[in-house]
């Protein structure tokens, strides 16, 4: 079996502080970071019950969510990491609003669908776990794997799900137990991890 297509469904970047509450920036100050066409159609929404403020920047295809312990940046389109620079946006926000606050954990999420040139032998794979009766009743199937790297400072969790006879969808969550770099290194890592995560299926075998 060979992969004939890869489709990026979405990307997310999260930075986490061990010293909550984070607090949310004033909308006018955040929007001031984006000038001209970048701020076209910008808006924000508050959820006071959860202490969450969401900023949407449609011109940049970007959503920024401030929560009590973390900042989450989401791509609202399927652009690849080098096209939509979530890490650069995160670094700018931290330097502007939280210059003295520690962000000691961060993570990247990539949601990717892979298409094969042959039918995924789902029954064969499920049969390694269940008896024939259970296999007959199974309508959805997936699995999870976590890899530890860099002496535990980096953890990669992959959620695999067969979504059609020819397609496998993988949500990759790459977490770092270290301070988020406020330099070009963060964007380089975001792009590099995408390449590494998109290759995980190359290590997947169905026989």
Tell me the β content. Answer: 35-45%
Overall residue-averaged pLDDT value: 92
Total strands: the figure is 9
Tell me about the largest β-sheet: 9 strands, antiparallel
Helix content: 10-25%
Low-confidence stretches: none
Structural class: alpha+beta
- Rg, alpha carbons: 20 Å
Strand order of the largest sheet: 2-3-4-5-1-6-9-8-7
Question: What would the principal axes of the Cα set say about the shape?
Answer: elongated
Element order, helices and strands?
EHEEEEHEHHEEEH
N-C termini distance: 10 Å
SS element count, helices:
5
Helices and strands in order:
Elements: E1 3-16, H1 27-31, E2 43-47, E3 52-57, E4 62-66, E5 70-75, H2 86-97, E6 105-116, H3 122-127, H4 132-137, E7 141-149, E8 154-164, E9 167-176, H5 184-198
Antiparallel strand pairs: 1-5, 1-6, 2-3, 3-4, 4-5, 6-9, 7-8, 8-9
Plain-language structure description:
Helices cover 21% and strands 38% of the residues. With 207 residues, the chain is α+β, with helices and mostly antiparallel strands. Helix 2 packs antiparallel against helix 5. The radius of gyration is 20 Å and the shape is elongated.
Features:
5 helices, alpha+beta, single chain, nine-stranded antiparallel beta sheet, elongated, 207 residues
Gist of the model:
The protein has about 210 residues and is of the alpha+beta class. It is built from five helices and nine strands.
